[in-house]
């Protein structure tokens, strides 16, 4: 790190990371994590986050579909989809599954 003297006093000069680069690194950190995606029609898809694009389309691997339940007693079995593409305009929310985060933290602690 180089220290430069400027009119306002000493400052530390670092190579700054662009916001797009930070966003890319964050997305790369989420790859292969279990994600829960809620869609506009009430369905929820759970699967491994494989990729996305600039239109916010998302590809999930080993995806399962959960239908919106009107009755709390009729949860039903999830439908296995496998590889699924969710159009970005249908995405309401995206969450990382808690167990996926715990696995990552345990892996980092064992290094």
From TrEMBL:
One Pfam family named in its UniProt record: LSM
Polar residues composition-biased segments: 9-24
InterPro entries given in the database record: LSM_dom_sf, LSMD1_Sm, Sm, Sm_dom_euk/arc, snRNP_SmB/NAA38-like
Top-level taxon: Eukaryota
GO molecular function, one term: RNA binding
Domain Sm as annotated: residue spans: 22-100
GO cellular component: NatC complex
Signal peptide as annotated in the record: none
Annotated stretches, region: Disordered: 1-24
Family as reported in the entry's similarity comment: Belongs to the snRNP Sm proteins family.
Protein name as catalogued: N-alpha-acetyltransferase 38, NatC auxiliary subunit isoform X2
Gene expressing this chain: naa38
């Amino acid at each position: 790190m180089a220290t430069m003297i400027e009119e306002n006093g000493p400052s530390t000069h670092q190579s700054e990371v662009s916001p797009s680069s930070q966003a890319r690194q964050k997305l790369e950190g989420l790859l292969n994590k279990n994600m829960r995606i809620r869609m506009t029609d009430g369905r929820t898809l759970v699967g491994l986050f494989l990729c996305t694009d600039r239109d916010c389309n998302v590809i999930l691997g080993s995806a399962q579909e959960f239908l919106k339940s009107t009755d709390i007693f009729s949860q039903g079995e999830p439908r296995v989809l496998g590889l699924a593409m969710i159009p970005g305009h249908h995405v309401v929310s995206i969450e990382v599954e808690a167990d996926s985060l715990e696995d990552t933290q345990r892996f980092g602690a064992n290094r």
